[in-house]
Design brief:
Elements lengths: L1 H16 L12 H7 L2 E16 L1 H9 L9 E16 L6 E6 L15 E6 L20 E3 L7 E2 L5 H13 L1
Parallel strand pairs: 3-5
Antiparallel strand pairs: 1-2, 1-4, 2-3, 4-6
Amino acid sequence: MRILVNLLVFGMLLIQAEVFACTCVGENTVKKEMKYVDAVVIGKVVSKELVTLTDSSAFERAQKNNWRSGLLYERIFAMYKVVVSARCKGIIPSDTLNIYTGLGRGDCRYPFTVGSNYIIYGMKKAPSGQGIFDFPFPKGKNTYWTNICRRTTSVNPSEITEITEIEQYLKEK
Protein backbone atom coordinates (compact mmCIF):
# COMPACT_ATOMS: atom_id res chain seq x y z
CA MET A 1 0.00 0.00 0.00
CA ARG A 2 2.80 2.39 0.88
CA ILE A 3 4.42 1.81 -2.51
CA LEU A 4 1.14 2.60 -4.25
CA VAL A 5 0.75 5.88 -2.31
CA ASN A 6 4.34 6.87 -3.12
CA LEU A 7 3.79 6.12 -6.81
CA LEU A 8 0.60 8.21 -6.84
CA VAL A 9 2.32 11.16 -5.13
CA PHE A 10 5.30 10.91 -7.50
CA GLY A 11 2.96 10.74 -10.51
CA MET A 12 1.05 13.82 -9.35
CA LEU A 13 4.31 15.75 -8.94
CA LEU A 14 5.33 14.85 -12.49
CA ILE A 15 2.00 15.99 -13.85
CA GLN A 16 2.16 19.27 -11.95
CA ALA A 17 5.73 19.90 -13.09
CA GLU A 18 4.48 20.17 -16.68
CA VAL A 19 1.51 22.46 -15.99
CA PHE A 20 2.05 26.00 -17.18
CA ALA A 21 -0.56 28.67 -17.78
CA CYS A 22 -0.78 32.21 -18.96
CA THR A 23 -3.46 34.31 -17.38
CA CYS A 24 -4.48 37.71 -18.67
CA VAL A 25 -7.02 39.73 -16.72
CA GLY A 26 -9.65 40.92 -19.18
CA GLU A 27 -9.01 42.77 -22.40
CA ASN A 28 -8.08 46.42 -22.38
CA THR A 29 -9.62 48.95 -24.70
CA VAL A 30 -7.38 50.84 -27.11
CA LYS A 31 -7.72 53.92 -24.88
CA LYS A 32 -6.61 52.08 -21.72
CA GLU A 33 -3.80 50.28 -23.50
CA MET A 34 -2.50 53.48 -25.11
CA LYS A 35 -2.29 55.07 -21.66
CA TYR A 36 -0.62 52.02 -20.09
CA VAL A 37 2.10 51.02 -22.56
CA ASP A 38 5.33 52.87 -23.37
CA ALA A 39 5.16 52.53 -27.15
CA VAL A 40 2.77 51.62 -29.95
CA VAL A 41 4.16 51.01 -33.42
CA ILE A 42 3.16 49.38 -36.66
CA GLY A 43 5.94 47.39 -38.25
CA LYS A 44 7.20 44.32 -40.00
CA VAL A 45 9.02 41.51 -38.18
CA VAL A 46 12.23 40.87 -40.14
CA SER A 47 14.11 38.39 -37.92
CA LYS A 48 13.98 36.25 -34.79
CA GLU A 49 16.77 35.37 -32.37
CA LEU A 50 16.65 33.32 -29.17
CA VAL A 51 18.26 35.00 -26.17
CA THR A 52 19.22 33.10 -23.00
CA LEU A 53 19.28 35.11 -19.77
CA THR A 54 21.00 33.78 -16.66
CA ASP A 55 20.06 34.75 -13.11
CA SER A 56 23.53 34.97 -11.58
CA SER A 57 22.35 34.63 -7.97
CA ALA A 58 20.20 31.57 -8.76
CA PHE A 59 23.08 30.11 -10.77
CA GLU A 60 25.35 30.43 -7.71
CA ARG A 61 22.70 28.75 -5.52
CA ALA A 62 22.37 25.96 -8.09
CA GLN A 63 26.10 25.31 -8.12
CA LYS A 64 26.26 25.39 -4.33
CA ASN A 65 23.43 22.84 -4.06
CA ASN A 66 24.59 20.73 -7.06
CA TRP A 67 21.38 21.35 -9.01
CA ARG A 68 21.76 20.32 -12.63
CA SER A 69 18.70 21.88 -14.19
CA GLY A 70 19.12 25.25 -15.86
CA LEU A 71 15.35 25.67 -15.52
CA LEU A 72 15.79 27.53 -12.24
CA TYR A 73 18.40 30.03 -13.36
CA GLU A 74 18.03 30.32 -17.10
CA ARG A 75 15.20 31.69 -19.23
CA ILE A 76 15.05 31.85 -22.97
CA PHE A 77 13.24 34.66 -24.74
CA ALA A 78 12.62 35.45 -28.38
CA MET A 79 13.90 38.76 -29.69
CA TYR A 80 12.30 39.97 -32.89
CA LYS A 81 13.75 42.76 -35.03
CA VAL A 82 10.92 44.97 -36.25
CA VAL A 83 11.20 47.61 -38.97
CA VAL A 84 8.83 50.40 -37.94
CA SER A 85 6.51 51.83 -40.58
CA ALA A 86 4.40 54.02 -38.25
CA ARG A 87 4.85 55.40 -34.73
CA CYS A 88 1.68 55.87 -32.67
CA LYS A 89 3.14 56.39 -29.19
CA GLY A 90 6.55 56.70 -27.58
CA ILE A 91 9.91 58.14 -28.46
CA ILE A 92 11.23 55.79 -31.10
CA PRO A 93 14.69 57.06 -32.17
CA SER A 94 15.27 54.36 -34.78
CA ASP A 95 13.40 52.64 -37.59
CA THR A 96 14.28 49.26 -36.06
CA LEU A 97 13.15 47.95 -32.68
CA ASN A 98 13.98 44.87 -30.63
CA ILE A 99 10.74 43.32 -29.40
CA TYR A 100 11.07 40.63 -26.73
CA THR A 101 8.50 38.03 -25.79
CA GLY A 102 8.51 34.62 -24.17
CA LEU A 103 8.55 31.24 -25.86
CA GLY A 104 5.32 29.86 -24.44
CA ARG A 105 4.82 27.32 -21.66
CA GLY A 106 3.01 29.83 -19.46
CA ASP A 107 4.90 33.04 -20.18
CA CYS A 108 2.17 34.62 -22.35
CA ARG A 109 4.38 34.82 -25.44
CA TYR A 110 3.14 36.61 -28.50
CA PRO A 111 3.42 34.32 -31.55
CA PHE A 112 5.08 36.64 -34.09
CA THR A 113 5.79 35.39 -37.62
CA VAL A 114 8.86 36.67 -39.45
CA GLY A 115 7.76 38.57 -42.56
CA SER A 116 4.39 39.65 -41.13
CA ASN A 117 3.19 43.12 -40.09
CA TYR A 118 1.91 43.91 -36.59
CA ILE A 119 0.50 46.63 -34.39
CA ILE A 120 2.77 46.28 -31.36
CA TYR A 121 1.96 47.58 -27.89
CA GLY A 122 5.28 47.55 -26.03
CA MET A 123 6.54 48.01 -22.50
CA LYS A 124 10.04 49.13 -21.50
CA LYS A 125 9.94 46.80 -18.49
CA ALA A 126 9.84 43.02 -18.86
CA PRO A 127 6.27 41.89 -18.11
CA SER A 128 7.04 38.95 -15.84
CA GLY A 129 9.63 36.93 -14.05
CA GLN A 130 11.24 39.69 -12.06
CA GLY A 131 10.07 38.74 -8.55
CA ILE A 132 12.78 36.83 -6.68
CA PHE A 133 14.93 36.38 -9.77
CA ASP A 134 17.80 38.54 -10.93
CA PHE A 135 17.65 38.11 -14.70
CA PRO A 136 19.49 40.81 -16.67
CA PHE A 137 16.46 41.76 -18.76
CA PRO A 138 17.55 43.63 -21.90
CA LYS A 139 16.90 47.37 -21.82
CA GLY A 140 17.56 50.22 -24.18
CA LYS A 141 16.06 52.97 -26.30
CA ASN A 142 14.88 50.52 -28.94
CA THR A 143 13.96 47.60 -26.68
CA TYR A 144 10.39 46.73 -25.77
CA TRP A 145 8.49 43.75 -24.37
CA THR A 146 5.08 42.45 -25.35
CA ASN A 147 2.89 39.40 -24.85
CA ILE A 148 -0.62 38.17 -25.56
CA CYS A 149 -2.00 40.21 -22.66
CA ARG A 150 -1.23 43.42 -24.58
CA ARG A 151 -3.32 44.40 -27.62
CA THR A 152 -0.48 43.48 -30.00
CA THR A 153 -2.04 42.03 -33.13
CA SER A 154 -1.27 41.22 -36.75
CA VAL A 155 -2.13 43.82 -39.38
CA ASN A 156 -4.72 42.47 -41.76
CA PRO A 157 -8.04 43.75 -43.16
CA SER A 158 -9.88 42.71 -39.97
CA GLU A 159 -7.57 44.92 -37.88
CA ILE A 160 -8.40 48.17 -39.67
CA THR A 161 -10.70 48.83 -36.72
CA GLU A 162 -7.68 48.73 -34.37
CA ILE A 163 -5.80 51.32 -36.44
CA THR A 164 -8.93 53.49 -36.65
CA GLU A 165 -9.33 53.33 -32.85
CA ILE A 166 -5.68 54.30 -32.35
CA GLU A 167 -6.07 57.26 -34.74
CA GLN A 168 -9.25 58.33 -32.91
CA TYR A 169 -7.45 58.17 -29.55
CA LEU A 170 -4.58 60.28 -30.87
CA LYS A 171 -7.02 62.92 -32.19
CA GLU A 172 -8.81 63.13 -28.83
CA LYS A 173 -5.58 63.38 -26.86
